[in-house]
């Protein structure tokens, strides 16, 4: 039910965040940037180690390690 | 269709840039090879040309299969090509200015303008005039 | 009946706070298109009708929980600085994320006004935002502004003045639901045991911060007498779960408000995204970056050269005039001291200005953040986060703002390493030394030599970072998380302005510290009375000869030694003092001749000298900023000693190695 890590989503796909498995500090930080459960994420670039995602009209670069902690579900799944 | 023009354009520009880039690097490495009038021996400049050529070429497969977003390679290629055309123009212009102020202008010839970084950018100018606006208005609706 | 109020401009990074600040106060602030341009609070003032308004521009922050130094500055001012009104600058193109901070600010109970900035960009995109509804639902005045064009400033100030009069301020707080609210109520109850604390901070806000596990709030509680009661409440609950519940609730509120006030066209791939795909792609990303850097350096040198020739011609003329001045000592003062010293620095202003202009374009376009992204993996492998790359690029202009820019780096040891390696990045002030020496001693390819020196600086920086990671500052770099601002076409005006803001410093330096340095050196070279100017018997000669044995293994003569000693004030002084000592004022352009004619100087010694200047101790301004940012004399001293040791070693290897290879004569 928790879906797959954001790090595995190919570029151009839209997904919904289902869970953020991060420590309290990182959780709060991601929340304040708009990356929280139920937010809509689009992966813009996933070409290199890190990826660029679009969340709520903003673009963030985040490392693969962090993207592994963000669990997502495919749109409409 | 328009897309096939873009495809054709990307392929030609990519091949020209890459070819000139290789020539410039080759001339630099092997001094025996006499440089052509219109292609100087310049390893770093050659590298720049190669990268621009590769950007153009990287868009070709996507443009052929109609992948949305592939057009971005064409536009980044255009932008880089224009930017470096400007770099070459300013560099040559500065040389001209210095000769005009402190040297003898008769020693300066228009042939110095004949570097690929400059004249290949003319081709991109045409491409930019044709498609630039379209892209920046946000064609990208994939 | 004039009154005085203080307002704070707060908001997420890169939403245009500094641009708005400039529009309100008319005071110019450095702006750029990457998160973390402003790292310090800046204030200015404006008079609106009969109110004097003190405006404070704060660094950007995503929430009131601070992670990095610049965010701490913002949070402390909002919470402890007690501004009369907080103006939250909101990026109209990304309301959802911006409103998260709004929910936190409104809990604080300070009067709040929202400046809906970059509204023109949202409208251009097709968004429709209903200001009145937004203001009604949030219970906060909302004003439409476009900072870059100065629109909406009057309306904003009207709202600010109106809000500053409202008191007491109601706290329009979010209800956190049945599970969280009882705990908040308990916490408030417990907090009331400490009236000193609750009179300073709104109790509900403190309770919420505590539940969210905010370290700063916990620090405040540690010294409070309500401590035990609060600890017993907090220990009874699962903090992580509550935190998640509260963040959810915040977004639920935002999600309930947003659709009613605006219709947006977000969600589609923009041109910006497509460009990102190309410039950050796996194989092309780094080559594109390198090519752009090459272009910047190519322009710096080629375009500057006619302008340098012009300045030189002017100097030649002035030197000719100066030579005719009576009495003779005044002629040498003006000729050798002034024109020879300061003039030899001024020649290089075109280089510095063009380099700064190109760096400004890089910043304003938004590419700088992409460069950090592209270099992330490389940076990670040397033990630094990708974010550290931005200060490295800024360092090409000047190390001082570069070291300030490290404030956005959250992890302290990441930040310390980034600060310590920054002086190795060759700044604009070192450029004159390279241009002069490389042009003289490597006439066939000066460009390659200068480029090589820049690369050497980067290599030494990288090697040092690896060394520090392996020894004194172990650990792993923090994971990369950074906002990518949308690309913007930099306008010539703003880039010229940025160039001027940073470049005018070099002119001021030339008229101030370098002028003084050159005069001091002239005085030392011309005394004691009767001595031949600039000879070994002068004071300058004595100082140089006393220290010279230290530098003898590197092949430096006493003139070079003196210039290095004074060069720590500002690196341009190296050139200024050589110009003074070789007494070339009467005939500008003769410094070149004098240096070439000096038998002690060969191309190997010249190279060793350039490398030494590249790496040796940072200039006074850089030292001061290292001291300020690390807060420790120990690290400052370390930086000085380490830099000089590395410089000596590198120059020694070149001098000795060169002598071995080419059999050069080095005394």
Automatic annotation (TrEMBL), chain A:
Keywords: Iron
MF (Gene Ontology): transition metal ion binding
InterPro entries assigned to the protein according to its UniProt record, in alphabetical order: Fe-transptr_FeoA-like, FeoA-like, FeoA_core_dom, Transcriptional_repressor_C
Pfam families linked to this entry: FeoA
Residue ranges of every copy of the Ferrous iron transporter FeoA-like domain listed in the record: 4-74
Record SMART domains: FeoA (SM00899)
Protein name (database record): Ferrous iron transport protein a
Highest classification ranks of the organism: unclassified sequences, metagenomes, ecological metagenomes
């Amino acid at each position: 039910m928790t879906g797959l890590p954001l790090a595995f989503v190919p570029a151009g796909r839209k997904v919904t965040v289902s869970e953020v498995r991060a420590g309290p500090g990182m959780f709060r930080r991601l929340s304040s940037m708009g990356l929280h459960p139920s937010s809509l994420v689009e992966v813009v670039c996933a070409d290199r180690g890190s990826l660029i995602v679009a969340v709520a009209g903003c673009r963030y670069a985040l490392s693969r390690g962090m993207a592994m902690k963000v669990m997502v579900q495919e749109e409409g799944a | 269709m328009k897309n096939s023009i873009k495809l054709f354009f990307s392929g030609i520009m990519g091949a020209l840039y890459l070819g000139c880039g290789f020539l410039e690097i080759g001339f630099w490495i092997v001094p025996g090879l006499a440089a052509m009038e219109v292609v100087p021996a310049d390893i770093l400049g050659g590298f720049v040309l190669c990268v621009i050529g590769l950007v153009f070429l990287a868009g070709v497969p996507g443009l052929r299969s109609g992948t949305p977003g592939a057009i971005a390679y064409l536009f980044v290629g255009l932008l880089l090509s224009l930017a470096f055309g400007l770099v070459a123009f300013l560099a040559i212009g500065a040389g001209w200015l210095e000769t005009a102020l402190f040297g003898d202008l008769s020693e300066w010839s228009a042939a110095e303008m004949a570097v690929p970084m400059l004249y290949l950018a003319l081709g991109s100018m045409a491409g930019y005039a044709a498609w630039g606006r379209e892209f920046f208005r946000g064609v990208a609706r994939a | 009946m004039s009154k005085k109020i203080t307002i704070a401009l707060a908001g997420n990074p890169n939403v245009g706070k500094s641009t708005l600040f400039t529009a309100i106060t008319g005071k110019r602030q450095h702006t750029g298109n990457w998160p973390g341009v402003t790292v310090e609070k800046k204030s200015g003032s404006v008079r609106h009708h009969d109110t004097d308004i003190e405006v404070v521009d704060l660094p950007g922050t995503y929430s009131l929980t601070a992670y990095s130094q610049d965010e701490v500055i913002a949070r402390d001012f909002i919470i402890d600085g007690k501004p009369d009104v907080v103006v939250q600058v909101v990026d109209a193109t990304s309301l959802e994320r911006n409103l998260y901070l709004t929910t936190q600010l409104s809990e604080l109970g300070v009067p709040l006004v929202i400046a809906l900035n970059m509204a023109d960009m949202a409208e251009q995109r097709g968004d429709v935002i209903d200001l009145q509804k937004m203001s009604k639902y949030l219970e906060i005045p909302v004003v439409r502004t476009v900072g870059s064009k100065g629109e909406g400033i009057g309306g904003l100030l009207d709202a600010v003045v109106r809000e500053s009069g409202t008191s007491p301020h109601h706290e329009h707080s979010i209800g956190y639901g049945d599970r969280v609210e009882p705990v908040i109520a308990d916490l408030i109850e417990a907090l009331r045991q400490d009236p000193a604390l609750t009179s300073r901070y709104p109790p509900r806000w403190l309770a919420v911060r505590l539940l969210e596990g905010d370290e700063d709030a916990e620090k405040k509680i540690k010294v409070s007498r309500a401590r035990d009661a609060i600890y017993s409440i907090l220990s009874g609950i699962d903090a992580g779960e509550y935190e998640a519940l509260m963040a959810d609730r915040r977004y639920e509120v935002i999600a309930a408000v947003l659709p009613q006030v605006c219709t947006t066209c977000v969600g589609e791939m923009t041109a910006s995204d497509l460009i990102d795909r190309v410039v950050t792609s796996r194989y092309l990303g780094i080559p594109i970056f390198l090519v752009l850097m090459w272009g910047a350096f190519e322009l710096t040198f080629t375009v500057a050269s006619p302008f340098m020739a012009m300045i030189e011609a002017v100097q030649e003329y002035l030197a000719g005039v100066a030579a005719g001045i009576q009495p003779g000592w005044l002629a040498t003062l003006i000729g050798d001291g002034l024109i020879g010293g300061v003039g030899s620095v001024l020649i290089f202003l075109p280089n510095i200005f063009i380099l700064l202009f190109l760096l400004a374009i890089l910043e304003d376009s938004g590419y700088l953040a992409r460069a950090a992204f592209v270099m992330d993996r490389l940076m990670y492998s040397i033990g630094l986060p990708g974010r550290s790359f931005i200060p490295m690029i800024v360092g090409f202009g000047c190390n001082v703002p570069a070291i300030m820019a490290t404030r956005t780096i959250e992890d302290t040891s990441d930040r310390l390493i980034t600060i310590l390696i920054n002086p190795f990045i060759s700044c604009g002030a070192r450029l004159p030394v390279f241009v002069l020496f490389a042009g003289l001693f490597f006439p066939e390819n000066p460009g390659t030599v200068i480029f090589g020196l820049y690369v050497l600086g980067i290599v030494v920086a990288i090697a040092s970072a690896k060394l520090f990671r392996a020894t004194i500052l172990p650990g792993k770099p923090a994971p990369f998380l950074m906002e990518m601002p949308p690309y913007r076409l930099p306008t010539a005006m703003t880039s010229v302005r940025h160039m001027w803001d940073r470049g005018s410093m070099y002119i001021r330096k030339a008229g101030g510290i370098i002028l003084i340095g050159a005069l001091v050196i002239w005085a030392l070279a011309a005394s004691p009375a009767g001595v031949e100017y600039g000879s070994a018997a002068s004071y300058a000669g004595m100082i140089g000869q006393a220290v010279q044995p230290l530098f003898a293994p590197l092949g430096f003569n006493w003139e070079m030694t003196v210039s290095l000693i004074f060069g720590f004030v500002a690196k341009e002084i190296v050139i200024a003092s050589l110009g003074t000592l070789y007494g070339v004022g009467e005939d500008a352009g003769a410094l070149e001749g004098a240096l070439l004619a000096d038998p002690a100087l060969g191309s190997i010694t010249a190279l060793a000298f350039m490398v030494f200047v590249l790496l040796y101790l940072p200039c006074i301004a850089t030292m001061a900023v290292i001291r300020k940012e690390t807060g420790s004399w120990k690290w400052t001293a370390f930086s000085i000693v380490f830099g000089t040791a590395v410089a000596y070693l590198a120059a020694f290897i070149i001098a000795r190695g060169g002598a071995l290879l080419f059999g050069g004569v080095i005394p």
